[in-house]
Amino acid sequence: MDNLSIFLCFVIGLISFVLISFKKRYTYWKDRGVPYLEPTIPFGNLPPRQAHFKDIMEPFYKQKKPGAPFMGAYFFRTPVVIATDLDFVQNVLVKDFSNFHERGMYVNEEDDPLSGHMFSLDGEKWKSLRAKLSPTFTSGKMKFMFPTVVDVANRFNSTLSEILETESELEVRNVLARFTTDVIGTCAFGIECNSLKTPNSDFRKYGSKIFDEPLHGSLVQLFLMQYPKIAKKLHLRVFHKEVEEFFMGLVRETIDYREKNNVRRNDFMDLLIQLKNGEALDEHSQKLGRVTFGEIVAQAFLFFIAGFETSSTTMLFALYELALNQDVQEKARQEIETVLSKHEEKLTYEAVKDMVYVDRIISETLRKYPPVVNLIRQAVRDYRVPGTKIIIEKGTAVFIPDFNIQRDPKIFPNPDVFDPDRFTPEQIKARHPMAFLGFGEGPRNCVGLRFGRMQSRIGLITLLKNYRFKPCSKTPIPMVFDEKKTNFITKVWNAFENREIVNRLLFGFE
Fold it and tell me: What residues form the membrane-spanning segments (predicted)?
């Protein structure tokens, strides 16, 4: 037998082995009596080309089986769980959290220190950081930061008014991101980054790079999660090197300056410095142990990306819906004017709390456009699903498709209709507690939800108080999402009407 024949036999044998291996693996859910969708080699149930995470999950949720807690799926050749039953979701997130306290995200602190933030960490490291950072987001801390956010909102309004004097079209996603960037820059780093006046500031430059120029698309991100050991051996990163260098330098300079000059600002960075030095955060809390410089940078980075992007995107979609629903917009504006009249026309912490309809608008926006379209948990030990003989094996990823849950007509009738009254106390009480997962649920819910709501409320109140929003011929109905982005990011031309100057602007999308 010549060398060519030997080589061809080897190739044929290898291909046959791989195919047999995949086919055997793809009987995993069938052998366990779990409903599943037929996979294809080599992607499993993943699409062969780029797709949005919400679209990957949609077929499973639509074809869920009555009485089944979940659907089985394959990401490449790895079996994963797609939760389709709300009781099962509650078990995973809350009741049996001890079995599912990990996310299984890709973390590579050696090659990519910024990846070691609390959202992605698991085990004792996550537990320790969560305990240390939770006190930084109490209602008392939010009340202290409130005037700072209002001050930035006032500068936001002034900048917007100046822009409207000369511009006829305005890309609102950008200006909203500049507002939230300035808020986070001030509250997290104690830095006046002035993105509102300087759109090309370093904060905006690197913030945009994170979301608009991600290193990896959704399929590669799933690969990183499924095969972290291979990814680490390849020294794969999650974030750009220049982003890491910027935040490392920024945090180091901030800490050095404050410690050398004994500067205290009572902001997020101050609290992280206290934790670095092993101090208690207030007279009522105990010392929780030190955090390292690397941990400080990663958590400050998380606060930045979560704080500026999710809040600006939430406000963006709220404005889109308010433009399409003038009755809702006017009702919110009337509430704002009524409440402010009772508080001497001042936007106080108490006044914002009284604006319950504005808060319902935020909740309804998060229902239609959740910042994270799938919650992810990973089994830390073998888990028997209550009421069944099904065992979810240790290490299996559980995907909870909150976008699909929150658009389910059986849970939210007419789900495409924007209706803030879905979030009255009576409506909330009548629904399953897992029907709305805008901030996650259970011990791993969003630690900064109070700050996120506060920032979004103040931003929307400022805008509604001063402007009216209307759609135009370029407004896409329904909304179109960028499939290259893992969350709901789209470039938006929002144009609106200044209530005093009556300056009509385009409200559309590019």
Answer: 6-22, 296-320
Q: SS3 for 432-450, per residue?
A: CCCCCCECECHHHCCCCHH
Q: Which DSSP state fits 407?
A: T
Question: Which amino acid, residue 337?
Answer: E
Sign of CA dihedral 90, 96, 97, 102: negative
Selected residue with higher pLDDT from 56 and 496? 56
The full DSSP string for 348-386 is: -HHHHHH-HHHHHHHHHHHHHS-SSSSEEEE-SS-EEPT
* Prediction pTM value: 0.88
pLDDT band at residue 416 under the 50/70/90 scheme: very high
Read off the pLDDT of residues 175-208 as tens digits, 9 standing for 90 and up: 898 899 889 888 877 777 777 877 777 777 777 7
Q: What is the pLDDT of residue 510?
A: 29
What is the Cα–Cα distance from 26 to 455, expressed in whole angstroms?
46
Higher pLDDT, 421 or 4: 421
Are 66 and 85 in contact, with CB atoms under 8 Å apart? no
CA distance 237 to 247: 16
CA 285 to chain centre: 29
Token duo for residue 492: 């938006």
Calculate mean pLDDT across residues 450-474: 89
- Taking the C-alpha atoms of residue 457 and residue 451, their distance in angstroms, rounded to an integer, is 10
pLDDT tops 80 at residue 485: no
| C-alpha torsion 107→112→113→117, nearest 10 | -40
Residues 6 or more apart whose CB falls under 8 angstroms from that of 496 comprise 319, 323, 463, 467, 468, 469, 470, 505, 507
Does 9 count as an annotated binding residue? no
What residue type is assigned to position 427 of the chain? Q
What are the Cα distances from residue 324, in Å, to 165, 368, 457? 25, 14, 19
SS3 56: helix
Task: Show Cβ contacts of residue 344 under 8 Å, excluding neighbours closer than 6 positions.
Answer: none
357 touches 336 (CB < 8 A) = no
Helical residues (DSSP H) of 26-103, grouped into ranges = 28-31, 53-62, 86-90
Distance (Å, whole) CA 316 – CA 313: 5
DSSP per-residue string spanning 141-184: HHHHHHHHHHHHHHHHHHHHHHHHTT-SB-BHHHHHHHHHHHHH
Round to whole Å and give the CA distance between 10 and 405. 48
- Residue 157 pLDDT more than 80? yes
CATH fold of 3-509 reads Cytochrome p450 (1.10.630)
Token pair 């609390």 is found at 118
Phi, psi angles (nearest 5°) of residue 81: -105, 135
